[in-house]
Amino acid sequence: KGNGDFTAEQFLEVMQGEDEAHQLLSMGLTTAPGCNMHCVYCYNEGGSREAGNPIKGRMTLKDYEKSIRQAAALGAQSVIMVGVGETMMDKHFRRIVELTSARGMIPLIFTNGTLLDRDMADFLYQHQATIYLALDSVREETFNLITRSGGFFGSVMQGIDNCLAAGFGKITTHNGHQVTDFAVNTMVMQLN
Question: N or C: which end of the chain has fewer CB within 10 A?
Fold first, then answer.
């Protein structure tokens, strides 16, 4: 929900750029660096670097507020939140979600699922979020090899259960498309 489920008319309106209130469909935000995993395919080295380069600056809460306000003014329907590592580790994460939802945009959260306790799942559901959860194996041993971290498999599985219990995963209609607010992403590789 909120990621590519736009109508052809919305795309044309944005592409033509004639209406200042409809110049953006979605905005991407990168949350502060940090990760509790060290996945074999990660390009940001567990949240310590981005594309091989040291991370020098971070957005402040005021920066996030300004970006979200401007995206809403330009007609964005969603804010895609990815982290340099685990998105939810940003100290402003909840506030960013609140600001996005309050502006009528869908918060799209990319997460490894380790921080999806019941309280967080309920919070995200109440703010009409969409969750993209990375799960590269349903076998704990393989999961641990890929994430290069032990002990998280159970919390990720529980996180999925928490999201389903909160109400995520139902099929609805948005902009004429059948959509869901919960998806699982898998990086396919020889290990899995």
Answer: C
